[in-house]
Each structure stands twice: as C-alpha cells, then as structure tokens.
Amino acid sequence: MLLGGATPASAHAALRSTDPDDGSVVQRAPGRVTLTFTESVGLLDDSFRVFGPDQRRVHTGAARHADGRSDTARVGLPGKLAQGTYTVAWRVVSADSHPISGAFSFSVGKRSATSAQIDTGPAEDPLTDGLHDAARYLAYLAAALLVGTVAFALLCRPADTSPLRRPLVAAWWTLLGSTVVLLLLRAPYETGAGPAAAFDVSAVERTLSSRPGLALLARLAVLLLTAAFLLRLAKREEPRQPTPAVLAAGTALAVALALTWAAAEHASAGIQVPVAMTSSVLHLVATGVWLGGLVALLLTIRRASGDALREVVPRFSRIAFVSVTVLAVTGLYQSWRGLGSLDALTGTSYGRLLLAKLVAVTVLVLAAGYSRRWTARLALPAAVTRTAAATVRERVPQPVGAPAPGEDREPEEQVESKESVESVEPSESAEPSESAESAKPGDRDGAPEAVSAGTGGDAERRGLRRSVLVEVAVAAVVLLITTLLTSTLPGRAQAEAAQQAPAGALPPTTLISVPFDTGGTTGTTLSGRGKVEVTLDPARVGENGVQAVVFGGDTGLVVVPEVRITFTLPSRKVGPIDAELTDVGGYWSTNSVNLPLAGTWTMKTTVRVSDVDQVTVSKQVRIVP
The Copper resistance protein D domain covers which part of the protein (predicted)? Predict the structure, then answer.
C-alpha cells in the first residue's frame, strides 16, 4: 500500500528544465544557458561544454548557480552566435555525491542542415570507477566489522577477547586506508578522469571544500577518536561489565561513523531528509552490530570453551534479533523512499538490485534461524545442570538399612555404618527418561549424566560454527549489493527524470542522419550508397511532422522510388507506427505522425532505390512529454 501511494520525488538530481528549451529554435542568440534540477547540485570546473554548428567548442564563462539557487547551473555564452544547432553537454555532482551528466541542443535562427557526432564530455574512466567502487566496498566491510566487533566485546562480554584483537585492528586500518583512497579519488571520480588526476592540487582543494569531501574528513576524525577509545578499552580488566559511560561513548562513535555515510549519500537528498538520515544511521549501525558481530562470534566459537559459549552465544542471539528487527523497519522505509512505485521494483536497475538484496537477506535470516536453534541446544545443558543442582537434597548421615519413619525394623538388620546416601528428585523441566536416569543408584553425585562435564557440547559448537560461517559468507554478498545500490539511480529519480528531464544519456533528436548501402547501383544517377536526412519535429508526444531528404554518394540530392519510416517503442510494445510519407517533389514528408508515449523509440527507415535494391536502417530517437 505504501509503494502504490508514493508520489514522485528524487534521491538523485534530475534535470527539470533547460533555458533555452531542448530542441527549440530561438530567433535571437541567448546570452546564457541555464539548467534547473530537482535538488541541489555541485558545479565542476568543466560543468558545461557547448559546441557550435561547425562542431567546434564555443568559449563560455565559468559555471555558477543562477540567482544563488543551489538547484541551478548557469553558464554565459559569447555575444554573437552563428545560425545553426548548438549542443550543450553538462556534468554536475548531485547532493548525494554521485556525478550526473547529459546533453541537449537548441538552434539559433534555424536548424543546421547536417548532423554529426559530437564529443559531449569525458567518458567515465573504468580504472577510476573500479578503484572507487572497490574502496567503497572495503569501507562498508571494515565499518561493519569494526562496529560489530566492539559491540560484541562490550555487550556479549566473552571471557577471552584475544581472538577479536587482530580483526579489530585490521578493520580500523582498512577503514582508514579506504577512506584516504576515496578522498583522493573523489576529484577524478567526479570529473570522469583517470586516477592520476587524484594528485592534482587544485582538484584536492576542491574536494576538501565539497560536502562529500567534508564527510570523508569527518570519518577520519571519528576513526582517530575510535582509536583512542579502543586503546582505553584495552586497558580494562576482562571480563567486566561495561559502565554506562563506556556504552554511551561506543554508541556515539558508531552513530558518528554512520553519519559520515548518511550525510553524503541517498539519505541526504530527496524527500523527508531528517527521517531518512535517522533511518540510514540506524540501518548502518544495526548492520554493523549484526554482520560484524557474526565474524566476532565465529572467532569466539573457535577458541572458547563450551561453558563460556553458553553465556556469550545467547546474549548475541538476543542482540542479533533486535538488530534484524531494526533492519526490517528501516529497510522497508528506505525501499519505499527509493522506489516510489511497484513498477520500479522490476522496471529499474535499482529495483532489481533491491530484489537481489532481499533474496540475499532472506537467505541470511534463514541461516540465522538455524544458528538460533544451535544456540538453544548449546545453552540447554547449562540450564539443566543448574536445575538439577538446585533440586539436590542436603545429605543426611544415617545408618545403612535404617527404617523409614513409621516403619519397624528387626534389630538384627540394624547395622552401625556411617555411609551416607542422597535422594535426588527429578527436575520439573527434565524428560521422564532423564529423571529416571538421574536417580540411578550408580550415580555417585546424583547429577544427570547427560549434562556432566559439558558432554554433548562439541556437536552443538560444530553446528553453530557452520551456520555462522554461512551467515558471514552471505553477509559479504549483502554488503556488496548494498554498495551497488548506493551508486545506482533510485527508482523515484529515474521516474522523475523520464517525466521531466528532456535530456539524459540519449538526448532528444530532431535531425537524424541515416546512412544506407544497398550494395548495388541504379545507373548513373544513384549509386547504392547514400544517406537520408530525417527531420522529426517537435520530437514530442502527440502529432509530429517528418521530412526525409535523400542524398547520394556524391552528397547531391537524388530521387528514389520509395522511402518508408516506421516507429516502434519496444519497452511498451507499441508499434510499428507507419509515418506514411508521401513524395512532395524532391523529398518525402508527412505532418500527421502520432507518437502517443514518451521514451526511446526505434525509427526504421527503408530506402528503395530500384525494383530490387532496398535497405532498412534502424536509429534510436527520444520522444519527450
């Protein structure tokens, strides 16, 4: 019900409008280009690249925010612009720290007669992206291990914490190193440059003044405070009940660490930011306590004795249950906020990743259920022992063979022996077979054999270790999917971008050049090669005009027997819609093509140059609302 009633909102920036409008023809050259986004954006030194009709870059001023509004970007243009079509490529950084880019076009006076491929900006450097993603994943792993190990040591209080020291130190150093790498790679990640740009002084200065850079600096500061806290904690006597001050300090550090993520990612932008930030912090802390605690538990199981585990494991089981509850509530809210609709669950990359994470978490919870069963079995012998010990009667010395109260015995049967006996009553919680066995005369102490000396604990330890190992492996997969989710455009933002933003990875097109090659000739007037210049106006939902002009191999106009154009929208299974072009003397035209939906359409152009020679070429065109 929550997903169905969601209203459009954004957790990534989406382009809301452009001035001049995309695909428009203006009579006077504009003095500036202004973009308006759905949320605040950060500007780069090269946020705008403007190309003229001759495909050369136009000199522009520095990018800035328009009228002091952080959700806008503006760049000044030269005073005199030639007639023709101009392409504007842009790249900014959204409030959740992810760079976004796109392109659009406008024309001055009239549209250019030719269309060419234009370099609309730097491509994403694969090495920079790979290193950045790897550092982010390591940061998530290290943070979870750091928070979970400390929480396990403080709340579960294992008798021997020596197995936890090495992973704790490794987690701290890994988080420190990955944070430094993220700080250095921030500038090339934003601009799409190679890793070598990380050492550019001006780029580093820009990073340190940006919100993502400040969040990473804050993380380094929290890590230093965490190191001081851990050193002080190491001097405590073990095991020992943590004081309220120690618990408060540990909780504050965990929350501060989680805030360095929440302040620079999806939760910091979009709707309900305060609630989203709180939910994100709780989600990250609960993830660390549960998943990082699993690793600490696995290491403890390998070293601790059965008696020690009977105290530690049930404590962690209760903590894990609370963590899973928090994760379920906050995860549901964040899913609603990120998706926006049920269709986005299967129709967007974000939704499909969320489904994959849900499957992985389900497997994780099932493994946790098996762990709880082994936990109950491991804790049972200690409970039975305590119950049996509490019901043992006090030893009462009396002669062997002495008559019970109210009974008469023969004098010769009375023997002056000082051996004592015990009378053991069966425990109320024990099974009948256990009660009978506990009362056997051969039991010198009267305690149940099944619970003496920790018998049966080895099997429970092995079973618990296997199930926890499965949990740890699945947890690593969950964190990997989480890393991918945080860098994926949320469903809400994708829906809003499709509805409001006319520009994106594939900008709307009003002039399409369709090269063709039939492989044959038609005499001296037309070879088998050429191109069709197709004008689609206005490339928006509703009635559109289509004009097609055929050029031969020598770039001269030629006459062909037939030109046919159809439109298909594969994502919505619409089409093919025949444009029904007519020859109007020198070119083919129609003014009544109805394209009912926005999206990326496939335009198929068929050119017949003779009775036997024809070819069909497909092109992608964007139709906007």
Answer: 311-390
